[in-house]
């Protein structure tokens, strides 16, 4: 079964500093990876995805993610954090072994950007 | 472009009752998935509908069922509610079964007492 792991329940970063939210994955075959963000009492919003190609993927709101096949990681990054980035972040992997799109999410990492 | 809308936003039910949650998919999207998000957890896949048929299911019992209508809107039905069914239920639509991202509604918060 495909899975993702987010080792940090919470990440604290000062406003203006770079941020990293970690994710590792376990898949059979090619990984199809996603990052989503969830604000309080809201659904999830798509940030970016890795399907194939460049290992550095750029997404919405200045976020990017680095795909590392040897370390089976897909860390989310941003050069300069904003207070408005404070939210819950989910890494996810799409199941490609079946004829439908089952997306498996990690447990989430709460990002707190401190003014 | 109209996004994914879910109703109701909040619901309180008693153990043993039945509930129906509704979802209107984003325009142009023909695939709808339902997820259960327990407090402090990531969303868990319940099932997916494509062209009015269920074509994938997660580890949920048969008392979780659904429908998709010709306009691609969808319902999630849960029978014989249990306390552990209390969660945020998220509907997500996508344009196909390929690599397009999921577009989520804001969810229905179900509380079972």
Index terms:
heterodimer; A: 115 residues; mainly beta; 6-stranded mixed beta sheet; globular; B: 113 residues; 7-stranded mixed beta sheet; 4-stranded antiparallel beta sheet; 50% strand
Structure description:
The complex is a heterodimer of chains A (115) and B (113). Chain A has 115 residues and is mainly β. Helix content of chain A is 0%, strand content 52%. Chain A is built from no helices and twelve strands. Chain A has strands spanning 3-5, 10-14, 19-21, 24-26, 33-38, 44-50, 56-58, 64-68, 73-78, 87-95, 102-105, 109-114. In chain A, strands 2, 5, 6, 10, 11 and 12 form a six-stranded mixed sheet that branches. Chain A has a four-stranded antiparallel sheet with strand order 3-9-8-7, with no helix packed on it. Chain A has a two-stranded antiparallel sheet with strand order 1-4. The radius of gyration of chain A is 14 Å and the shape is globular. The model of chain A has no long low-confidence stretch (mean pLDDT 93). With 113 residues, chain B is mainly beta. Helix content of chain B is 0%, strand content 50%. Chain B contains no helices and eleven strands. Chain B has strands at 5-7, 10-13, 19-24, 31-37, 44-50, 53-57, 64-68, 74-78, 87-94, 103-104, 108-112. In chain B, strand 4 (31-37) and strand 5 form a beta hairpin. The mean pLDDT of chain B is 93. Chains A and B meet through strand 6, strand 10 and strand 11 of A and strand 4, strand 5, strand 9 and strand 10 of B.
Task: Please sum up the structure shown.
With 115 residues, chain A is an all-beta fold. Chain A contains no helices and 12 strands.
């Amino acid at each position: 079964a495909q899975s993702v792991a987010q080792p940090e329940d919470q990440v604290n970063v000062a406003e203006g500093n770079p941020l990293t939210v970690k994710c590792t994955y376990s898949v059979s075959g090619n990984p199809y990876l996603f990052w989503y963000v969830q604000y309080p009492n809201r659904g999830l919003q798509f940030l970016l995805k890795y399907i194939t190609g460049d290992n550095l993927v750029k997404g919405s709101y200045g976020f990017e993610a680095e795909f590392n096949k040897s370390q089976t990681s897909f860390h989310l990054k941003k050069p300069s954090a904003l207070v408005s980035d404070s939210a819950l972040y989910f890494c996810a992997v799409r199941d490609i072994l079946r004829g439908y799109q089952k997306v498996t999410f990690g447990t989430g990492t709460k990002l707190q950007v401190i003014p | 472009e109209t996004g994914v809308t879910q109703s109701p936003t909040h619901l309180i039910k008693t153990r043993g009752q039945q509930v129906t949650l509704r979802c209107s998919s984003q325009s142009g999207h023909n695939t709808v998935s339902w997820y259960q998000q327990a407090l402090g957890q990531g969303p868990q896949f319940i099932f997916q509908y494509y062209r009015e048929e269920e074509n994938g299911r997660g580890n949920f019992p048969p008392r979780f069922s659904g429908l998709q209508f010709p306009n691609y809107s969808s319902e999630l039905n849960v029978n014989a509610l249990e306390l552990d069914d209390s969660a945020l239920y998220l509907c997500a639509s996508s344009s196909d079964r390929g690599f397009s991202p999921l577009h989520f509604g804001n969810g229905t918060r179900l509380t079972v007492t």
